[in-house]
Predict the 3D structure of the following.
Amino acid sequence: MKKIVSLLVLMLTLFSIENVSAQNDTFGVRAGANYTRSTSTVQNANFSYFWGFHVGAFYTIEKGNCRLQPGMMFFKQGTAHRVYYLGGSEPEEDTALEFNYIEIPLEFSYKVYAFNGGAIRLNVEPHLGFCLKAIYNDHKAKKEELIEVGKKMNDEDMGIEEKNFGVRLGTSLQLGMFEPYIGYDLGLSDIMMGPNDMYMEGLYFGLSLHL
């Protein structure tokens, strides 16, 4: 955590001393997909990737080669769990944990290469998430169970944390008002209450539209 705080301080310092001769503040919207799974301290846990999506809005503060983008995002993400027996092609167990989050990201972006009509950027985006809903989905039994966030389950010493924290590391291609992006999302906080730790990770990609 100390390393993350130090990185944020460094980014804000670079942003503050950057040449302010050029400035372009705009609003924008963003939408894309995410391909996530969880890592856990549970022994023999076999987690698979889960397709989700994200959508939201941001405000761009651009000065020279540096850019800050505070925003508000909705993320649907999760992790799947599949178990195959005796080499079968169909899973004997096929379940998933699905989460709906409202996130507050703060992206720092640096223009590493500019060309006529566009630029390549490197992006670092710390984000704080608030879990709105958690669902346990048993695909084999065709049943869904809503998990109450922030409280331990009655029969088990575990539950879903209300908040999480992470950082996204990626790159984007700025082409006028359009900016496709791709990167890796690394969860830095345990999303589960109880004795076992669980962290989210995965790929994300999409398109930002600067209005």
User: Anything to note?
Assistant: Helices lie at 2-17. The radius of gyration is 19 Å. The chain has one domain: 2-210. Confidence is low (pLDDT under 50) at residues 1-5, 12-22.
